[in-house]
């Protein structure tokens, strides 16, 4: 496999591949592919994957050696677009296993209890909260809450007439 590459789907992804994303303060955080998600029919999902956020922050992009023994802080299902939006490219591969996680796992909450489906920015928000701009995260959450409240109000007005 030639690195770096921008994944368009999960077809070229495999366990241990990693990407980094820059925080608002210029530092970097890192995430990795833990497993490709499979559908009910057993086929690999082309868009969803299981990923993890490392307990790592650096002033430059991580190397595989930086991450080989680093624990994970967060794990869950993400859309392949998360990599495109926040990291752009898969940078390399880490020669390690992830606590008995198989290279492919069903995309099912019943089959993977304790593994949430993460929104597009959950890993970014978690990293910013820990190592970056905590105030920005709080502001983003306020904006999202206000938008949800507005949408609920609009639905209620529409339904109630």
Distinctive features:
six-stranded mixed β-sheet; 4 helices; globular; 161 residues; alpha+beta; 6 strands; 30% helix
Structural class: alpha+beta
Total domains: 1
User: Which of globular, elongated, flat, extended, rod-shaped describes the shape?
Assistant: globular
Distance between the termini: 58 Å
What are the secondary-structure elements, in order, as H or E?
EEEHEHEEHH
Beta-strand content = 25-35%
The portion of residues assigned to helices is: 25-40%
Q: State the low-pLDDT regions, or none.
A: none
**Main beta sheet, described?**
6 strands, mixed
Radius of gyration: 17 Å
Q: How many H/I helical runs? A: 4
- Mean pLDDT, nearest integer? 85
Give the number of DSSP strands: 6
Structure description:
The protein has one domain. The protein contains four helices and six strands, in the order βββαβαββαα. The chain has helices at residues 64-67, 80-86, 122-131, 134-160; strands at 17-22, 28-38, 44-58, 72-79, 92-93, 104-106. Strands 1, 2, 3, 4, 5 and 6 form a six-stranded mixed beta sheet that branches. It is globular. The termini are far apart.
